[in-house]
Amino acid sequence: MSDTIYSNLKQLGGDTVQPRSPEEAELERVQNPQADVAYNVRFTAPEFTSLCPMTGQPDFAHLVIDYVPGQWLVESKSLKLYLTSFRNHGAFHEDCTISIARRLVGFLEPAWLRIGGYWYPRGGIPIDVFWQTGEMPEGVWIPDQGVPPYRGRG
Amino acid sequence: MSDTIYSNLKQLGGDTVQPRSPEEAELERVQNPQADVAYNVRFTAPEFTSLCPMTGQPDFAHLVIDYVPGQWLVESKSLKLYLTSFRNHGAFHEDCTISIARRLVGFLEPAWLRIGGYWYPRGGIPIDVFWQTGEMPEGVWIPDQGVPPYRGRG
Amino acid sequence: MSDTIYSNLKQLGGDTVQPRSPEEAELERVQNPQADVAYNVRFTAPEFTSLCPMTGQPDFAHLVIDYVPGQWLVESKSLKLYLTSFRNHGAFHEDCTISIARRLVGFLEPAWLRIGGYWYPRGGIPIDVFWQTGEMPEGVWIPDQGVPPYRGRG
Amino acid sequence: MSDTIYSNLKQLGGDTVQPRSPEEAELERVQNPQADVAYNVRFTAPEFTSLCPMTGQPDFAHLVIDYVPGQWLVESKSLKLYLTSFRNHGAFHEDCTISIARRLVGFLEPAWLRIGGYWYPRGGIPIDVFWQTGEMPEGVWIPDQGVPPYRGRG
Amino acid sequence: MSDTIYSNLKQLGGDTVQPRSPEEAELERVQNPQADVAYNVRFTAPEFTSLCPMTGQPDFAHLVIDYVPGQWLVESKSLKLYLTSFRNHGAFHEDCTISIARRLVGFLEPAWLRIGGYWYPRGGIPIDVFWQTGEMPEGVWIPDQGVPPYRGRG
Amino acid sequence: MSDTIYSNLKQLGGDTVQPRSPEEAELERVQNPQADVAYNVRFTAPEFTSLCPMTGQPDFAHLVIDYVPGQWLVESKSLKLYLTSFRNHGAFHEDCTISIARRLVGFLEPAWLRIGGYWYPRGGIPIDVFWQTGEMPEGVWIPDQGVPPYRGRG
Amino acid sequence: MSDTIYSNLKQLGGDTVQPRSPEEAELERVQNPQADVAYNVRFTAPEFTSLCPMTGQPDFAHLVIDYVPGQWLVESKSLKLYLTSFRNHGAFHEDCTISIARRLVGFLEPAWLRIGGYWYPRGGIPIDVFWQTGEMPEGVWIPDQGVPPYRGRG
Amino acid sequence: MSDTIYSNLKQLGGDTVQPRSPEEAELERVQNPQADVAYNVRFTAPEFTSLCPMTGQPDFAHLVIDYVPGQWLVESKSLKLYLTSFRNHGAFHEDCTISIARRLVGFLEPAWLRIGGYWYPRGGIPIDVFWQTGEMPEGVWIPDQGVPPYRGRG
Amino acid sequence: MSDTIYSNLKQLGGDTVQPRSPEEAELERVQNPQADVAYNVRFTAPEFTSLCPMTGQPDFAHLVIDYVPGQWLVESKSLKLYLTSFRNHGAFHEDCTISIARRLVGFLEPAWLRIGGYWYPRGGIPIDVFWQTGEMPEGVWIPDQGVPPYRGRG
Amino acid sequence: MSDTIYSNLKQLGGDTVQPRSPEEAELERVQNPQADVAYNVRFTAPEFTSLCPMTGQPDFAHLVIDYVPGQWLVESKSLKLYLTSFRNHGAFHEDCTISIARRLVGFLEPAWLRIGGYWYPRGGIPIDVFWQTGEMPEGVWIPDQGVPPYRGRG
Ligand SMILES: [Ca+2]
Ligand SMILES: [Ca+2]
Ligand SMILES: [Ca+2]
Ligand SMILES: [Ca+2]
Ligand SMILES: [Ca+2]
Ligand SMILES: [Ca+2]
Ligand SMILES: [Ca+2]
Ligand SMILES: [Ca+2]
Ligand SMILES: [Ca+2]
Ligand SMILES: [Ca+2]
Ligand SMILES: [Ca+2]
Ligand SMILES: [Ca+2]
Ligand SMILES: [Ca+2]
Ligand SMILES: [Ca+2]
Ligand SMILES: [Ca+2]
Ligand SMILES: [Ca+2]
To answer: What is the pLDDT of residue B1?
Structure first.
């Protein structure tokens, strides 16, 4: 099986080279086959990890990305490799979350995009970061992300 | 027992032939017996499966469809058979979810319709697809679909 | 103990005769003792059952009814008996849910009413039916019904 | 430790006399120390019980009260004693819930107040009662009460 | 690794002196590296404790703070030390919750801020306190805090 | 498709006649195709209803049946019709639950069987009934039924 | 409908007089119709309340009682009235829970009985009391009571 | 990277050919690198589907397999392909579940193995199938599978 | 109301002096009024806090204590004050948890006792500590503590 | 504050050097201050990540370790650094989980130890690995780890 809109893809189905940094990672995109309607695509990435820029110790986050595609869809394997490329990258929680979203915005030119970054606790206090490109577009359905709150123990 | 608005139905209560493709599947409809009020009907289909168009491997999704009927209600057994007909059909997550919704829109001419496609994770990252035909109709009650977020493990 | 607004009630506290059909069931109402404020009353009825009009087999539903009373409150025991009277009645999910709501609307003349009918799965796919009489009244508090989504197994 | 705004309190920290009826219960109030901002205070009272006015049998409810204080805060121990005073009082669910809220409204003159009364099931059907004094005030944060729906068994 | 916007920080990565009171605690801030977009930062602090000003006995709360930064981000370790400094401070629930929020507002000059204080029950009745600086800013994404309601036992 | 061990079945795949009482209902059985190993089969029946023998009013239960088959498996459609046949049958909770189990024991001659009957509350107090034919057989895996406890409200 | 084993019952189906104390409450029993097998009956009573013997203030508990009947079953309405009779009775948590169980043991002479008393928190710390008459009987199925642990807030 | 114990693997990392039936599927195994200790490996497969042998309609199950390896570990990709090969295979729930387990037992010669098959409801009643090869081995840790019970709706 | 077995109590109902250290805290006990049966008493204390002996920073824990009383019951207010007295005490998690249990063992001479200490995470990894005085006593009912596992985020 | 049993620790409270491999990581231990009683210590590590030895792509796991200390306690910061050192290490799920446990067994010489490795899904199927050093020691309390099962979506 194949699909002509995917004929340019380099990483899907071929040998994968793990990018060593976000800069090295190459996002790929395909034409949106349903570009005449406005819909929302959600990626849930519970396997995100980066490094603390001050101490070099690993940080972990559960990321959820929603976007309303314009002409392009992100190819999901290239997105996974891009997220994996933060493994040895140092960035603060706020900065890291927002910069992932902004790279996607620049590359996909979506009608709308948001990111929720739910970071594992440090010092007993988790940080969550929430950003969207602006008002939700009228008439498009964007459900709550619904991630449960942190409770400590008990 | 019988009901005249159902007298044209072919698949309900008779022998069922499993359609081999979405094209072959025949949706059926009955007149909406409460067509003078605007209400919402929700179908939850946790047993959806199709094939990946690139690799031929099976994909799975949990689908939830909401619609506000106009003159027609979809007959639920024909809907089930239609969904089952994707079993050997290759389609990407975004395309597959949206095309199911659009076929229902064309066939039922509902006042409003939306679909949530909650796909099982591949590469550790599930994709959800959300579409509706436009703004929710004024004064009609459409609750959240409330599907819990994917959490990985732990 | 007694209460004059309840002095006309026939079924509450007396011998109960189980009505054999919705037509035979007699709803009762009392004057709303707080009719000068607009508030919402919710009934949750997880024990609803009726028959399939095509096959005669039992169907089950979890019903939730919200209403903003006008001059009348429904007496809860008569409501229970009315709901129980569907036990041997044949009706499709959509029709049955809406007709319960409409009988209450006609009898109580509420400021506003809605019903959520959460039907047990048939063919692996549950149907939910949602109706309200129109826009939620301004400034009245009507919380989500919050019924969890169907998940299949696992 | 002490606090001058609390110097008039009679029941807090002293001997407590359990009031025998709602009429006998004495609510107390203190000046709102943050009266220049509009915020919401929520009390959750899962230990409410009263009597059925028809049969004299006990009823139970889980109550949640939200209010945006004006010049006064309710003193929490006096609120507890007031709620406890319904122990031998006969009142229907709708009437009882609304009258608690209205007494607080009269005594505290809040900017806004609402009550959710979640009553334990009788005849298999619980009743919930929801009231608020009017539109939520603009720009004040009033979260959902989030009480889970009744499910019967299973 | 280091980062120039953090070069003024005194408490992060160095020896920590536990402040003995909120007055003694020193909040620190860094420049917002993404100040050209409006996003929300959430801190969840399930380890908050203070003293009752009337009896001197400990109180406990689960705090959640959301803010939309302007030019400044709060440094998270200094926030933790500030919250910890209430350990021997006497304050009522309403007063304590609001004053934490107001100190952050004065120090960070955020575009918007809110706090939810979920206090452990006393006398069987927990108090929750909710405040925000005003209407949510248009187009910024601020999810529900989603803390589950208190249920008593059972 | 067919299967010779099923060639005697009368109700599966044919026209179904709803039995009017437990006595009239006909259970069917097929040979156990894996009779040389000891395994457990669990049926979960959340749609059970019968009548109260004193008042004639409907009762509801969630039933879970575990059995270790000997030479026979119960045919699931005939089990469903048998359970449905209690719809107009009067029986107390304890008696009804145990008699269902004993009929299955007599008909299937299983190596072991148990039933959990989780009845909806009456008078605010649900009754659960648990029975098994004796000690769990050694080395056979019988997981907990795991039905959550009844909580009232809140 | 009637049933000869129930012909002696005084409170079920007749007028109910609420007993004013545990001593005044009259438990009733019927012959166990399935006395030749050993099974477990569970009552869940989330509406229990008594008074603190030191302060006279109300206490609340969620009670769960399991018993393996011998010759007698407790009639459930008389059990409800017995539990309700503690409404104005002073007793400590440990004493109250155990004495309920022992009265049932004396009256029913069951093969085995246990009680779990899950008391609402006082001073932030709930007390649970667990008692059984001795080892679980061999081969009888007694599932966990499964009441969730107390969590405070958050 | 590579690993000599994996040098014989044919399907992992190479091109995958989807087997068309369980007979055609080829399981693969590797030497157990920790064969001197007894431990448990659990596979959770929520994406299982087969066909009903009577009607040809799809069935769905959530499968959980535990085994204590002897000399061999199953290679996980070959297990996935084996499970996928049931997609067009007709088998009853009991038979299908047990036969998967027995093929693994024959191929892996494990110290112990069990399977839990949690099938989606048909006719409102799900079937679960549980089998193990015999008593749990002494001193080996095998936790509960903990799959939540089916609840219907509400 | 009073009770002679409580006539020696000093802290209950009188003025409370908060002890400044575990050594200063005075536990109190009363005679076990049901000393002729063996039952379990559980205290759940979600408000425990102490200090880290190395850094002086606060630690938090959710504690659950089960004990089977002999001749003595611990008076619950004195237990609360004892637990509160760790507020300014430095102790490691393992040491602190075990020493609380051992003091109770020495003071109460129970038939059996256990403690579960569920500590809030530090460095992303919570520690739980579990101790009991020995084998559970035969025939006494000691349910699981059932505290949910820590999940990080997502 | 200090504690003589901790005087040899090198990594706690000092500068931390992140070890680059498991071999390089140095575990540290302190004398067990409660070595005369047998208790269980549980570490929950939801932030574990390693690499696939075949493809080099990251794997994620949620690890739970229980051990009954002998003469030694593991110092928790050194444990965290050891677990973090797998970040760039290639190992299969089964091998990796067991080898972590065995290194702890060799270093701590505990009375008993177990590990649960709950790996994130690959190919839609998560693997869990469970090992313990042998039978649970008599009379020591080791609760279930209670990690919820993987559910896919919906
Ligand atoms: Ca907590
Ligand atoms: Ca919503
Ligand atoms: Ca809402
Ligand atoms: Ca599933
Ligand atoms: Ca149910
Ligand atoms: Ca929301
Ligand atoms: Ca309760
Ligand atoms: Ca179990
Ligand atoms: Ca409650
Ligand atoms: Ca808590
Ligand atoms: Ca277990
Ligand atoms: Ca239900
Ligand atoms: Ca258990
Ligand atoms: Ca996680
Ligand atoms: Ca257990
Ligand atoms: Ca699902």
So the answer is: 39
